[in-house]
Amino acid sequence: MKWITGVIIFFFTLSIVAKTTMSYRERKKQLDGKITLVLDIKDQLNLELDAGRTSIETIRTQVEETYRAGNRVEIEKTLSVAEGELLVTQRKLCFPMEESANQLYQKAMGHWILLEGEDKSGSKPLEWDTKEKIQRYLVMAKSEKDHAKEYFLSGNYQLSLHTYKRSLVYSLMSLRSQKAEIPEEYQTADNVWVQPIWMGLHKQKQNTIQEN
User: Fold this and answer.
1) Is 159 exposed, middle or buried (0-12, 13-18, 19+ CB in 10 A)?
2) What is the pLDDT of residue 210?
3) Which one has a higher pLDDT value, 61 or 53?
């Protein structure tokens, strides 16, 4: 446990050094983006964050209020505390995200194995472009999942969370292409993250068909 804390402190120290040349506006903009991603994941996957720590919503409010007040010393202090709190939260959130990405990928892959068997037996033939889409989404889901783990191990928790989210999106896209049922715990994420993409792709395809 001590070495984990040491690693976090090390990366946090490096980030503080890097941020000394950044304006408060740039630091706040980066922090806002990170908070938005954490809250997005928390809300769409209904994940519980550490109840023993200051909530992300409270941190965001504190940063906004201090930033508007304009006191440079207080802004520096609040940003530094918020960045440290968020770093710990991001790291902890990577664990359930890894579990979710693995779980959903296995679900999509398992369904595809059954579907592929039916296709090969001729009992439920699939069109070539449908098979190609399903397989492509599965490959991308696995690739993003593996990259997310690498980012986590390197200490880049923001990019790790973002990449785990992309893996979930590709797994959901594969399930949709298979016309499989979306697991209940991922239905909100599917509606918010995937539905707009899905509708855009089908609208583009429909327009192409009409033009031809």
Assistant:
1) middle
2) 45
3) 61
Residue 11 in contact with residue 152, Cβ under 8 Å?
A: no
- Rounded (10°) angle between helices 24-45 and 72-121: 40
The Cα–Cα gap between 86 and 154 comes to 17
Other CB atoms within a 10 A radius of the CB of residue 51 amount to 6
**Which two three-digit tokens encode residue 166?**
């992309």
How many CB atoms lie under 10 A from the CB of residue 88?
A: 15
- DSSP character string of 149-180: HHHHHTT-HHHHHHHHHHHHHHHHHHHHHTTP
Q: Span 121-146, mean pLDDT?
A: 93
Buried b (16+ CB within 10 A) or exposed e, 4-30: eeeebeebbeebeeebeeeebeebbeb
Q: What is the pLDDT of residues 6-18, one digit of tens each?
A: 544 444 444 544 4
Distance CA 201, CA 207 (A): 10
Burial label, 155 (beta-carbon count in 10 A; 0-12, 13-18, 19+) = middle
Q: Whose CA is closest to 34, among 21, 15, 14?
A: 15
Alpha carbon 110 to its chain centroid, in Å, reads 22
